[in-house]
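Let us work through a complete example step by step.
Step 1: write down the sequence.
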Amino acid sequence: MEERGENLMATITVSRQIGSLGTEIARETARILGYDYVDKERMEKLLSRSGFPELEIRKFDERKPPFWDSLALERRKFLHSTQAIIYELARKGKVVIVGRGGQVLLRDVPGILHVRVISPFEVRVKRMVESGGFEEKQAARFVRQGDQESFGFIHTFFHVDWNDPSLYDLVVNTGKISVETAVRWIAEAVQSSNMAEREEETRERLADLALIQRVEARLMDVVGNDIRLVEVEARQGVVTLKGSIASSRGRENCERAVAELDGVLRVENNLAVAQFYRLGP
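Step 2: predict the structure and record it as tokens.
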């Protein structure tokens, strides 16, 4: 029997297919462990507090962008803000995060358990029909579209295949495994002794990662698409800006905007002023 350890900052990410019962498993796991539960509705509230209008949140959340995306900048800002929230939630610990690419953002961070919940397509369709509101063909289209949207979101923004098993520590097929068994497995795994390691180091790393995302989201308001020319680093509240900027005034504006953010103790402004030549109108 493996020894259990008290992991004070354990975080569980749950990636799930529509109709796989992943949401039910995530919610029940959070309940029995006494963890915070963060799903789409909770994430919307957290994003609203950070200044995002509700309509923009629903427009961007876990959706694959069109090939020609006229809202690319707004979408990237939304993504940076979402990532900052995920890092901050993980830093606080004792949380179950459903979706939003948590399995990718936190894959190299100690103390995080990544769970994938799947089920055969026909089983998921049947569940949707039995839950009411769907005929079989409608349910099949709904499930297929949901899979495509989630795959596209993860592939577009994180450049990985959400079906890649190496992204997960535990994959549960609810075509064979019950919700109760899945919850028990997850609870046992998250309390194992090898999950509790380097907690202080991990907290600091997650704080730095969250700050980088908030800085990049803020800089988009200052430099727009030129954010691709700016590199941001953060360590214990000290933010370093590297790369190029079009003017001395822009350089100063970047430093001022970053310095105003909560959690920033000092800004090391290493941006170089360079003349840009743009094609087109």
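Step 3: interpret the result. The first strand starts at residue 11 and ends at 16.
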